[in-house]
Amino acid sequence: MKKYIKIFVFLFLVSVNLKAEATLEIGIEHDKKLGKFVDLDLEFTDSEGNKKKLREIITKPTVLSLVYYHCPGICSPLLTNLGKVIDQAKVEPGKDYHVITISFDPRETPELAKKWKKNYLSSLERPVSEDFWTFMVGDSLNIAKITDQVGFRYKSDGKDDFIHSGALIVLGTDGKINRYLLGIDYLPFDFKMAIIESSKGISAPPISRLLAYCYSYDPEGKKYVFNVTKVAGTIIFLGAGIFFVVLLIKGRKKSEELIEVAIAESAADADKDNKLWFLLQDFKNNRKDKK
């Protein structure tokens, strides 16, 4: 029975992933991009107005966050929680890793990036070097390339803002995408492990993958909400599948019991020359061989 249930669950998860890949317009394509590489020759402008290629900054494992600075929604909470996990995680910023925050709105300026850098660096409780966290802006071409390379899908709301989700993307020194921390809340242990594994070149799926499935981004409320319909539908679907498998197994056992009864009755009613007895016995033996 366990074998049938495992097969059923596997097929269901495959179908969910295929559906997600086919319909994703807003979100993080972590399954498709994990283990791929970011082009380190992409060029952006830092908060001091200096143009730099990513390879000039990514000299250690690097945590990449994609936001836009005038965002009224999840960008501020994302960076606030990033600051908190930087304070709490037992890895040393600047020594063990760097952080890069890039605006995906090409209209934003280095002056705005400088303001945001000052705000978030001042909110940190642990002593750090200002150089460990780089805030950047870029042109539309470089923004399009990096968002595509890491699977960051977003779109304009038709006004002045964007509909998007949140994540931290941990890169190796070679630009390899080693880990995604999905959402806007991060655990210190997850953050630490992502840095350590990235320093070793290890790519691993998001620890919060199940949470990412259970929660969806609400563009109107500009936050993540528990997706009751998706979770309830999944439970019902799995429950119905397990019930169906149980019925099949029970039906199989019942048929075997009936054959045993028929053989016993045939043996009681006639001698071994009884053709029905031989037919039932042969059928029973064939079923055993197939098992």
- CATH C-level class of the largest domain is Alpha Beta
What is the strand tally? 13
Secondary-structure arrangement, i.e. CATH architecture of the largest domain? 3-Layer(aba) Sandwich
Neighbour order of strands in the largest sheet: 3-2-6-5-4-10-11
The separation of the N and C termini measures 14 Å
- Portion in beta strands: 15-25%
Shape: elongated
> Might you state the CATH topology name of the largest domain?
Glutaredoxin
Largest pleated sheet: 7 strands, mixed
* Average predicted confidence as pLDDT: 81
- Residues in helix, %: 40-55%
Structural class: alpha+beta
Number of domains: 2
Q: Can you say what the CATH homologous superfamily of the largest domain is?
A: Glutaredoxin
**Uncertain stretches:** 18-22
Radius of gyration: 28 Å
| Annotation field: number of helices | 10
String of helices and strands:
HEHEEHEHEHEHEEEEEHHEEHH
